[in-house]
Amino acid sequence: MVDDSREFERFARPHAAAALRLARTLVTNEADARDVLQDSFLRAFRHFRGFSGESPRAWLLSIVRNVSFTLWRKQRRSEPDEPETVLEAEPDPGPSPEAGLLEACDAELVQEALRQLPTLHREVLVLREIEECSYREMASVLGVPIGTVMSRLSRARAQLVRKLAGDLRSRM
Amino acid sequence: MNALNEHPRGALHAHLDSELSLEGSLEVEHHLSDCASCRRELDTYRALRQLLQSAKATTSEAELTLLRVTRTAHLRHRQRKFLVMGGAMAAAALLALVPIPGRTSGIANEVASAHARAMEAGRTEELASKDPAAVERWLSTQSLEPVPPTEGGNGIALRGARVESLGGRRVATVVYQVGSHVVDVFAWRSAEADVEPRPTVAGHWTVCRWAHRGVAYWMVSDMGTEELEVLAGLIRNRRT
Fold first, then answer.
1. What is the pLDDT of residues B37-62, one digit of tens each?
2. Which of A20, A42, B69, B161 has the fewest CB atoms within 10 Å, i.e. is most exposed?
């Protein structure tokens, strides 16, 4: 039992921070995020010996995802909207605003804009830009093909840029 | 190499995320050299990345939650005393990373494979030398440019250099010894703006890349990501 604990710690420790950040991304309430994290570790601890995949991080993050959505259901919220179908209806936004415009953003503005994005868009941005997951890893965490990861990510980036540009303009 | 005549829509994002092969990346950069609107778009997404990373939350409490789960279970079953780590908990001791087997796409995988091949063959240097000037001279006789830094010092020992073949291109490789670790540093021209060292894991290896003044540098070794990131910073600062 001692060996199990230490070995699980070695297995999970490098990804603990990423797991908490993803939990916060998905459930937004801090107390809920801590609960999700603890439950995720407990579940992973019970099953990690059977893990034989490519990426322990992807496996742990997919557990965090499942536990988060279980919490959503308990709180009687519906699972996140599928942004592909919603945004496919939107016209092509055209060229992005200038990079210089983004320099006027502060951390608070970015965090707020991120919070207001659809959950699945916020999620891919955090996994890619904060956790630096590869596309392949993201496909594994999200349970979708790599093509979906790529289109979701490019839409999420475009949407966040447009939102920030809009937020900045409304400040002026 | 075919130049891209159309705008690389999806490939632009993949390039930004280092998911293209070296050859693919170079094709995109070739397009970017002629296309201001794609350059602007890429710059916008880079700026977005900076913004997101600057707002990154720190999470030492994640490790504490992990330990609560593992140590409590342990206590419940064994009722043994264990060392209380206290303040050390949040420190580097907790963050020592074991390289975890896994697949990575793109350039990280290419440089890690090149490093692995050289290590397995026992042929990391074609020129074995501790003299930075000799190494630079040799690389220039190989018609290779740009060249990675060659100055060691402070426990960073120059071993020599070799010519590596990546994506059909000849790439200068400088080899260091740091403690028990062999470290490769590759360099090639890139239109990328300056970027701080970013570590990642590719299979059994740790990889760190940075960009400075139109050159992309990639470093590969088997040390932890934190150590590699520090090393990359030291080596990058040798050249200003």
1. 899 899 889 988 988 887 666 566 78
2. A42
Contact between A95 and B37 (Cβ < 8 Å) = yes
Q: Measure in Å the smallest separation between the Cα of A48 and chain B Cα atoms.
A: 13
How distant is the Cα of B145 from the closest Cα of chain A, in angstroms?
A: 30
Rounded to whole angstroms, how far apart are CA atoms B31 and A157?
A: 21
Per the CB < 8 Å rule, is B14 touching A13? Answer: no
Which two structure tokens, joined as six digits, stand for B228? 């590699």
User: Which chain B residue has its CA at the smallest distance from A134's CA?
Assistant: B104
Torsion region of A34: left, alpha or beta (phi above 0 gives left; psi -120 to 50 gives alpha): alpha
- ipTM over cut 0.90: no
Of B19, B48, B101, the CB nearest to A134: B19
- Considering only CA atoms, which of B211, B219, B220 is closest in space to residue B239? B211
**What is the secondary structure of B190-212 as a DSSP string?**
--PPPEEEEEEEETTEEEEEEEE
What pTM, to 2 d.p., does this model score?
Answer: 0.60
**Residues forming beta bridges with residue B187, ordered by sequence position:** B172, B217
Check: CB of residue B9 under 8 Å from CB of residue B95: no
